[in-house]
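Model the whole thing, not chain by chain.
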Amino acid sequence: MERDAVLASLLRRLDAVSKLDPADIAAIRALPIAVRHWEGGRAIVSDGERPSECCLIIEGFCIRSKTTEAGQRQILSIHIPGEIPDLQSLHLRRMDHDLVTLVPSTLGFISHASLRTLTHARPNVADALWRDTLIDAAIFREWIVNVGQRPAPARLVHIALELRTRLLSVRGGAELATFEFPLTQEQIGEALGITPVHANRIIRQLREDRIVDVSRGHVRVLDETRLAELAQFDDRYLHQDPVA
Amino acid sequence: MERDAVLASLLRRLDAVSKLDPADIAAIRALPIAVRHWEGGRAIVSDGERPSECCLIIEGFCIRSKTTEAGQRQILSIHIPGEIPDLQSLHLRRMDHDLVTLVPSTLGFISHASLRTLTHARPNVADALWRDTLIDAAIFREWIVNVGQRPAPARLVHIALELRTRLLSVRGGAELATFEFPLTQEQIGEALGITPVHANRIIRQLREDRIVDVSRGHVRVLDETRLAELAQFDDRYLHQDPVA
DNA sequence: ACCGGTTCCAAACAAAGGTTAAGGATGGCG
DNA sequence: CGCCATCCTTAACCTTTGTTTGGAACCGGT
């Protein structure tokens, strides 16, 4: 996906509620963006740093994660093209977590200075970006529920269905029976708050039960009905529909 | 605590970074606020609703929570006077969780309309409020780590220490050896992602070990050193210090 | 084709936490 | 004063998840 397509998917999301006018859209399109390529598994910004720019994902996948003193890592979110996973750094000087690529990725960097100028000049754009960070927070809330309340198999399929929904809203198109999910079993464990061994157990189980097949960086849905039943996934928290 | 003191603590937090000027502060003080009293254990806004105002806590305690289809409740955050726990509703039309009082509380309601007028007229204020919602999100991130990675006793003391830190930053004053923590053991379980029985087990254990005493709606610290060791609490994620 | 490093798979055992059930303390209220 | 409701407390037993460990499959680089 190249720059224009990504900007389009970003704009589609931002436009959702605040009704950007043509001048707002033009101003966003005019933002200076420095495109850089990144290897997989490499930090974009790390806990403790004070970045001076935000990162738009043009191509690839990223995660945000925190590491405890004891050395355990918790994955907080998974990010796809069209998203700006560290937009919060615009107002929170110091990073409180890491932002890391999962796979080789193309990133677009936008300076805080230019974003601040834009948001101060155009309250509509400020609202739209603000709203985007609020959806981010809504996803964190659901992630807390996931890790706190659901048994491990439900946790996994819930995350998978969330990612599928978000991929669909960017790429468009019909239901995806197969989609990218580029996490190793160890990373799946870190996302779900379980050990890699247990992650393997439940993946194996879900495969044996012919519900989903999670392997080689992909998810393949085998039984949509039982999957929905297990995941209890309700996409309302993604706030994709502006009127809803 | 009455209205002025609460506005003061709100302003202190908002002023942290964006450096509000006197006109900004006057504009915030001029916001029309409708003060109402609320019983304990009563919803202020519920999942699915479309509120038209935000709620400033003047006196009391509130929680935010989500309930799964299976009927399990997860507490997402605990809120204290000076905070606006549903500020996100300004840009996210529909609630994706509940906001509930824990104890009898005094609340100040501010209409979305007046907030929107304010933020559009004064970018500094918009930035300050935006930043406040970003700190909210940072707390969610740490909550994910808490529920996902820490064993139950560490989860409890981590939440307690977070609340103490936030109470201190509002009320001011020296280290608190005892502070309010108005959750029942069932609610503690809902916050930590464990059953009330297990909550009781770990509370008893922490008491026997002379680390903390959690009872009758209060936390009493018995051994500050071992508490810190157990909680691994690092307040950086609260972003209280603007320069840090 | 081989090698070293990941990643995945798997089994046996241990520990944390869930379930069920029931008695006891506490506190508001008639 | 006694009643009821809520909360706390505890125990016995069961399930899920963690731990440790080892081997198999896969993959990029030489």
